[in-house]
Amino acid sequence: MKRIAIVGGAGRMGQILAQGLAAQGDFEVTALVDVHEPHDRGGAIYVKSVDGLDPSNVDVVVDFSNPESVVATANWCAANAVALVIGTTGLDPVQRAAVERASASTAIVLAANFSLGAVLSERFAAQAAPYFDRVEVIELHHDKKVDAPSGTSLAAVHAIVEARRSAHRAAIDEPTTRNTLEGSRGADAGDGVRVHSVRLPGLVAHQEILFGGPGEGLTIRHDSFDRLSYVPGVALAIRSMPDAYGLTVGIDTFVR
Ligand code: NAD
Fold this sequence. Notes:
Layout: E1 2-7, H1 12-22, E2 27-33, E3 45-47, E4 60-63, H2 67-80, E5 83-86, H3 93-102, E6 107-110, H4 116-128, E7 134-141, H5 151-166, E8 187-188, E9 194-199, E10 205-213, E11 216-224, H6 231-240, E12 246-249
The chain binds nicotinamide-adenine-dinucleotide.
């Protein structure tokens, strides 16, 4: 039974993870860490900061909080050689470097998207990429999302571009020579792969990767309908994380 402490344990993800991980059967959520008191403690102890954690009572720390608090979490995990899974996004280069330094003293997994469907759709897209002449990405999110395009869509384009370059496919030519409205063709996210962002109330996180070749098309679509979609990926990361110290970025290597 792995004992888990969740940083950001009072937040939207923290509360879902506390329930979802406890329900897996092989994890016990022993502590919730948050500056705010959690609505539901579910039998875990509550502490205001990682400094209140007892390292002898925690095997893995899971952090879904905010970028500033990730640094303190990583330093505590390094000082106590406790493994760490980070889902918090938006780390700046200084915060990211602090996580990398901490990974010299403990095992850390850092992933911007723990949804297994998103990981697999990126993998399938990379597999398809060399075989189609054109590809465009449409990412669709709720109307509270402040950044565009999504980090997930940029990661997908990166994987597509890498796969095309490995197969010696040239960058995609842009056929449009006259834009009646500026921005109609979305943004070139690399080698002519266009990304289009949609923001609407009612959506959660969705993505379509559209491929086109002579006489055929292929669409790879992924939908996150609920934050529950991240729980299996976090559980997989906890179970699969290496014993050796170091940083694993993304959960792709754990999805076989
Ligand atoms: P949220 O605002 O609901 O929760 C964040 C929690 O962190 C809050 O309860 C807040 O009080 C707490 N917190 C802030 N500072 C803290 C500190 N110093 N110490 C302890 N706790 C602190 O946000 P959320 O929707 O749960 O998302 C949390 C993070 O997870 C965000 O960065 C989000 O982008 C990320 N996220 C990642 C994935 C993924 O797959 N990697 C999926 C969903 C969300």
